[in-house]
Structures are given as C-alpha cells and as structure tokens.
Amino acid sequence: MIKKSEVTAKDPKEKKSEVQGENMGEFDLTSSEWYLNRELTWLEFNRRVLHEGLDERTPLLERIMFLAIVGGNLDEFFMKRIGGLKQQVGAGVRKLTVDGRTPGEQIGECHEVVRSILVKKEQLESKLLKKLSEQSIRVAEYQELNKEQKKEVDSYFQENIYPLLTPQGMDPAHPFPFISNLSINLLVVTKYKHDDHPFLNRIKVPTGVGIPRFIRIGREHLYIRFEDLIAHNLTAVFPGLDVESCTFFRVTRNAITEQDGAKANDLLDVIETALRDRKFAEIVRLEVDAKMSASHRGMLAAELGINEEKDVFTVEGIIGKRDLFEIASIEMPELHYPLHQPLDHFRLSGDSRNIFHIIREQGALLLQHPYESFDSSVQRFLWEASRDPKVLAIKMTLYRTSADSRIIPYLLDAAQNGKQVAVVVELMARFDESANIRWAENLEEAGVHVTYGVVGLKTHSKVIFVVRRDFNGLRRYAHIGTGNYHAGTARIYSDLGILTSDREIAQDLTELFNYLTTGYAPERNYRKLLPSPRVLKKALLEKIEREIDHHSNKTPGRIQFKTNALEDKDITAALYRAAMAGVQVDLLIRDTCRLRPGIPGLSDNVRVVSIVGRFLEHSRIYYFYNKGEEEYFIGSADIMKRNLEDRVEVITPVEPEELRKELREILDVQLADQRSAWEMQPDGTYIQCTSKKEAAQGSHEMLIQKAEKRLSDALALFRLEQKQMVKRKKGRGKK
Fold first, then answer.
1. Which end of the chain has fewer CB within 10 Å, C or N?
2. Catalytic choice (232, 460, 479, 551)
3. Which one, of 621, 381, 408, lies nearest residue 477 by Cα?
4. Is the pTM of this model over 0.85?
5. Residue 116 to residue 110: CA distance in whole angstroms
6. Is 460 a known active-site residue?
7. Which domains does the chain possess?
8. pLDDT tens digits along 449-459
C-alpha cells in the first residue's frame, strides 16, 4: 500500500511537463523540461528528513535529532549553495541551468521552499518540546524557573559567563560591529532612567568556550538556553541603565571563497587565505527573533548590506536549531533507537591471524558500515600495516577524518617504524580545511610524504594501499571505500568498503598514486578501476549504452544505481535513453535527482527511491545486468558533474561471487523498503512507501539483523569445525 505524504516539490514547471510527456512520441533530451533543479530537489530531501521528526514511529529524542539535522543542513545550504548562487548573480551570470533557471530564479524559488520548511520546523519544535516535557525533559524559559532555580543559574552566569561578555555599543563613536558567521547575538536597547534617548548594543553569545547552548539546571533534565540566561542578567552588563528590549539575531556568511589554486605557487597559502576571507565573507542570510521590531530588523539589514525583504528570515522559537543535537544526545535509552553496536566482520571476528594472511588466503572482504565495525576492520588494517615488519610502504588518500580517529596516529607510527608513508591530503574539503592543514603539518614533521593531489582537482577517493613482502615476493593490499576515514561518521553513515589483494586492482592503484603524487597522467592504463576525471564518466556512459544494445525480450536489460545524488545531465540523458529502450532502471538516490521517473514513453521503466532513516545513506553501488554477465561496482563518486569531471574518485569492481551476493542483498532490501523509503513521482513529488504491517521495519533495521545473522552463522560454523577437529583428534588417538 502506498500513502501520499505531505512532502511535495514546489516546482511550477513540472506538472506542465508531465502533461506534455503523455502526448509526445519522441523526446528532446536537451530540453530543460525533463530535468529537475539541483537545489530544489536537495531541499525536498530535507522535507523528507524533517518528516522523520514528524513521524511518531520515530523515538522522541531521535525526532529532535532530525530537527537538528535539518537546521544544520539549511545552514550549510545557505553557506554553500545560496552563497555560490549569489556570487553568480553578482558576477552577472545569466547562463541557464540544465533545468532552465537563472541563478536569481533559483535563489527566489529556494527562498520560497526554505520559508515553507521553516514553518514546519517551528511547528515541529513546539510539538516536540511539549512531548519532551511529558518525559521530564524541559527546555524552560527563564521566567518559568522558580526562585531557587533562578538563584542557581544567576550564580552560574556571574561565575562562568559574565567575564566572557563584551557588550558593544552602536553609535557614531562605536561603528556597527563585525558579526561572525552563525553566532547567536543579542540586540539590546538601553536608556538612562530619566532620558528617552535609546542606545543600541550588541552582545555576542560566547559559544565554543566549553559552555553548552543548553545549560542544565540541577540534577533533573531541566535546561535553559545560553542566550536566555544572558538576556535575563543584563542589569549586570549595563548597570544603572534600563533595558528597554532584548532580541536575538544570527547571520550566515558565504562559504565559497576559494581562490584559483591552479595559479597559486603555494596551495597552503591559498587555503589559509580563503579561510580568513570566509570569516569576512558576504552575508547571505539574517535570522531574527520574531519579537524584533520592524525598525530594528530594517536597521540590521541595512547595516549588514542585505535585502530586508528577501534575505531576512523571522524565526519562531530557537534560533540555530542545529544546537538541538545537545538535547538529542541525552542518555535516555527508551527515547532513542534500540542500541546498535557495530559488529566485527564475520570473517575477522575471533581471527587473531595477521589481517594480510586472512585477505590473501580467504579472498576479498566486503565491509558494511555501520552494521560492521570500522574500528575492527579498516583501522585494524592500517594498525597492522603500521606495525608489521614485512610492510614496506603505506599510501592513502585523506579527505576527512575525526579528531579522535586512530588513522593519523597509525600513520605516524608507521613512519617511525621505518615504513615509506605517503598521504594525499585534500586541503579543500569544505569546512575541514583547518583540520586537514593541521594533519598535513603533523604528518610532514614525522617524515611522511605529504602531497595535495592534482592541481585543479579535489581528491575525493577513499583508498589505503599497502605494499608488503610476502613469502613469495611483494604483494599489494588495499582498502577502497565509499566513505571518509572518519571513526565518528562510520557509526552513523551507511558506507561500504572492500579489502582486497587483487593483483590488477593493486597495479591500478600504483598508477593512481603515481598520478596523485606527481600530477601527471601520461597514458595511464587502468585494468579494473574506474577513476575520475578521465575514465569514470566515459565508462558509465558506455556501460549504459551497452545495456541498451543488449536489451531484448530474452535478456532484458537492468541498471541499478545507489548514490547520494544524480545531477550530471549526460548520465541522466543516457538513463532516459535506456528507459525508452525498455531497460529497467532502479535508482536509489538519497537527495538531489534531476531525472523524473514514470513519464509515459520516456521513463516508464524508471523507479527513483530515497531512503531516509536512522543512518545517513552514503554508499555508492553501480550495477549492470550485462546480458547475465553481471557487473557490480562500489566507490566514492556520486553521479554529479563535479565528481565525474573535477575530482579524483575511485570506483572498483566487486568480483567475488559471495561479495556480489551481499551487494545484491543491500539493493533488494532497500528497493523493497516499506518504512524508510520514499518513491519519486513524475512531477518531482515523493510518496512515502508504507506497509499494511504497523510494525514494518526499515531497511536499516533489516540490514542490522542481516549483519547479526552473518556473524552468528560464522560463529556457529566455527564452533562446528572446532568440534569436528576435536573428534578427528580423538579418532586418531584411538588408532
């Protein structure tokens, strides 16, 4: 049974196109009407995320988490996407997107969708805070506290907050202050007791100093917002003055500030300059308290140089809802998803042998995170490589990692243990630039060979490459993944990886790292890997055309892609051609999708499904039926122009039959999901798939259970083999 959800796409062009499609015998695939907008479809993904917060089947604190996720996503959307579009408008760009929109039109339509999402967010916030209160978790206003509680928080203010505050006046002698990105600010109006002249003041809430946004009161789960506590202690900040009003505001600045790295003599200098520029970048959004007066709202817009009508967003409730992660992390198990502890991979669990022996003797392993442990697989692989005396060299790409990850220490250990260690660090990983510069400097100081990839291309691939002297000569081992080497996200992102010693893949990785460390690509031939930017897009297009050629009634063609986004026009057009030829096309696309399924004659054979649940879908799988000679690939690349043409990505074939069965299982489970799946309609709207069974499980829960079964089956087989071995020994003893 399918139920229509309230999640819809606000795209006026699409209904018209659907009607046209019904009457067209042929389709002009260069026409913009067949392509959805990247920004608008990404915003629609956030409607689906927000729906998880609305869904009463979702545990209460997880609903708070989804509300916080949407808040953080919209912050990043304004910093990256709206920021980039505003730059295009400023530069006079009039070129239409593949869906037929100018940059200005996209901004206007995005603002409209964002405002509708904000209404839903604020309604959800109010509802969830009431439900939290019913569970004895309260985010209280200062006025709601009793005398003892006020005394406690006022004392906390005096000891921990007051010394950190820097009130700034705004008058001819005190120019309008600099407002930092995403900071919470108080706009305070004061006056002398016997004088009507108002004074404007700004106070920045000093976040990042060890004080949480939600300050706990007493031993119960009672919290007050940081800024609310400041607002009710202003007599200490402005002694002798009357406080006439206090409201809150927050700005978002453009994060697109990179200079042209291709023309730079020192890439580190370029990135560091870009980070400094970002702090002072153009403001793209102003959020204001709903209680703020029209005159103060206009004053802020004028001082900040933005359009009051278009760029100012009034917020009911909490400004900066991404900080609700603090509330979502409260340890009350009954209000969270059932505990999931990532399991050891079933072929690594309990096997204390050298991991390289396991890979060499048993063959490649497919890793499924977060169902299977990142620590006991990927980090174990690197840890053993750093200590194994037979390992001669370790090479890897590093796009993002976490502060508490063991990846960097293991690389440092490897260098100290005399291994040749080479790391390709991507300095332009958005919002991780500072951390990556720090990692790069630490690695260089330890003697690691650090390079920054190929000029003009981001290195987004996820690869660890190990050269080891085995008993029969040099052998190369590798991990190729879909996700970053980040222990934190490995617990909440759904990703895949393969550990292999395949000789041809190893030879390809040797070529790849030589390319990354030199920047030259003279006739590099890849046997199995499909790297971008030179190989991958061409290979995908050829494989789609091959599927069209092979399609017949006897051997019907089938293409299945699982990826975060489908944005590239050429691939989208090729998939349309495949569908028109009769090939079945199943697309598991998390967020942005340009293709419109279900248009008669054009995309009847296409399904587009988006999975939204407890884990963030992040893995990429590419499948082609290939006339029965099935092909499976996994890797780091989404189907986006930037990934295919402007980044170094790695897609690898998965050839062992048992691993292909695991990938088939993932695809089948997610395409049949009746709890976490949303199916796209021809007009770009989504319908949530539901089951007649009230307790239907989503694919994430089902994949957890399948990982548990793989491990339990492997342990049962191990115990059986141990018993049989004991019996054989006893039998030999009797003889």
1. C
2. 460
3. 381
4. yes
5. 10
6. yes
7. 2-9+35-130 (1.20.58.310), 139-328 (3.30.1840.10), 355-525 (3.30.870.10), 531-692 (3.30.870.10)
8. 989 888 889 99
